[in-house]
Amino acid sequence: MTGYAAGDRAVGTAALHLELKSVNSRFLDVIYRSGEELRFLEMPLREQLAARINRGKVECRLHLVPHQMGLQRELSVDLKLVEQLGRLEQSVRNVLPAAKPLSVADLLRWPGMLGDEAIAPAELQAECLALAATVIEEFSASRIREGAKLATVILDRVARMRELVARVGPMLPQALADYEQRLANKLREAVASLDEERIRQEIGVFAARIDVAEELARLSTHLDEVQRVVQKGGAVGKRLDFLMQELNREANTLASKSVSADVTAIALDLKLLIEQMREQVQNLE
């Protein structure tokens, strides 16, 4: 199922940015992308995603973004670090008098001089998981909204299939009668030695083989189950996958047993609607 959500959370002098987006997939496939400094957060994030999401190819992007250059913030120099560097410079110059002295620019660029200290991994993980909880909630909500729309589409297809199945029943008696008459005429022409009782027996056997009442009943039962599962909600994708296979099996049997062009046309329309539903089911979790 497709979905998208993103969020930010301030951490020290930077901000964590988490982005989730997904496309259709029969199973859960998480693709994690981040800088090396955040690679240790991959497994906790995967576990948090797997606890809420069952299907979909999910791309998870996590970045640590420095504060914007235009953002006003107060800077302070670590004077103790300046004194320490001064003493170290003097020690070096005692040994190497020709060494180039430290400039102000060198001091300001020194790691930690302006308070931009590295963020502790434990703090990063705690902040990241808190951010992930919020983003995953929004991500799930977006998928639920899309799922509700897809459920409406699927139920519409179910209603149309019910109409088609209902049309087949009244057609069968006349279609079978016409076919039996044509078959009887051919048998009389082909085998003149057969008596009428034997012809009726052969026609009865063949009529039983092409009877589609059972297929129509199973189609109705499967459509009832599709409607029940969709209306129940939750993680329904795998169950609906199975039901689409069963519906397609019955539609194929209906087409193969058909002795009427009208019934064959309805069977093909059913297969088209099933295929449309199958495509939508791939979008459901």
Keywords:
alpha+beta; 285 residues; 62% helix; 4 strands; 8 helices; 4-stranded mixed beta sheet
Write the topology of this structure.
Elements: E1 3-11, E2 14-23, E3 28-34, H1 42-50, E4 56-66, H2 79-95, H3 104-108, H4 121-190, H5 196-209, H6 213-232, H7 237-257, H8 261-281
Parallel strand pairs: 3-4
Antiparallel strand pairs: 1-2, 2-4
Helix pairs in contact: 1-4, 4-5, 4-6, 4-8, 6-7, 7-8
Structure description:
The chain is α+β, with helices and mostly antiparallel strands and 285 residues long. The chain folds into three domains: 90 residues; 30 residues, no CATH class; 137 residues, no CATH class. The protein is 62% helix and 13% strand. The chain is built from eight helices and four strands. The protein has a four-stranded mixed beta sheet with strand order 1-2-4-3, covered by helices on one side. A hairpin with a 2-residue loop joins β1 and β2. α4 runs antiparallel to α5. The radius of gyration is 35 Å and the shape is rod-shaped. The termini are close together. The model has no long low-confidence stretch (mean pLDDT 81).
- End-to-end separation in angstroms reads 6 Å
Uncertain runs: none
Which secondary-structure class do the elements indicate? Answer: alpha+beta
User: What's the SSE pattern?
Assistant: EEEHEHHHHHHH
Tally of individual helices:
8
Shape: rod-shaped
Strand tally is 4
Overall radius of gyration: 35 Å
As a percent range, the share of helical residues equals 55-70%
Strand content: 5-15%
Oligomer description: single chain
